Amino acid sequence: MKFITQAAVLSLVAILCGTGGYMLGKKQSSSSQQTESPNSSQSPRDKSSVRQRQTVSAPIDLKQFREKLDAEKNPLSRFKLAMENLEEWINQNPEEALKWLASQPPTVRRDEVMRMALEQFAENDPKGAADWATKNLSGIDLNNMLILIAGSWARENGQEAASWFRGRP
Q: pTM of the predicted model, to two decimals?
């Protein structure tokens, strides 16, 4: 009889703890949803346009930013500083940002960041991004970037994209 009583008490404690944990988790989940911005129900594409509008509203001073970037002696800190401002830098002067990225020591991370920067450039100016890529990249890197640029460009203006690509050797 003692074993059955202990098992019943343990079962009751487990049920109560489980219910309490569930309710606590449910309460935290609902409170975190309430604290999120009203734009949280937007699609990722809508969120990026919100991010771009926020970025445009607070442009960086490129001259001051470049001076700070050039003054930074630690390569990791310099790259981190560039990454923190890359999106706005691409919006304001994509060629300069890409030129700076290309001048950095080649690493997998640098190549990844250049791809993201070119992709952002292509969203704003696909022809400019394609022109920059053909002038500054070669081989597989050029082919991969042109494929990436062509996809977004064709969705926006397929005729212009096809015309530009037909003119390539």
A: 0.59
SS3 content of the chain, % helix, strand, coil (to 5): 85, 0, 15
Q: Where are the domains of the chain?
A: 1-35, 55-166
pLDDT of residue 136: 92
Rg of the Cα trace of the chain?
A: 26
Give the lowest-confidence range in 45-59, 77-91, 94-108. 45-59
CA dihedral 60, 66, 72, 76 (to 10 degrees): 70
Please say whether the beta carbons of 86 and 117 come within 8 A: yes
> What is the DSSP track for 117-156?
HHHHHHHH-HHHHHHHHHHH--HHHHHHHHHHHHHHHHHH
Rounded (5°) CA angle 95-98-102: 135
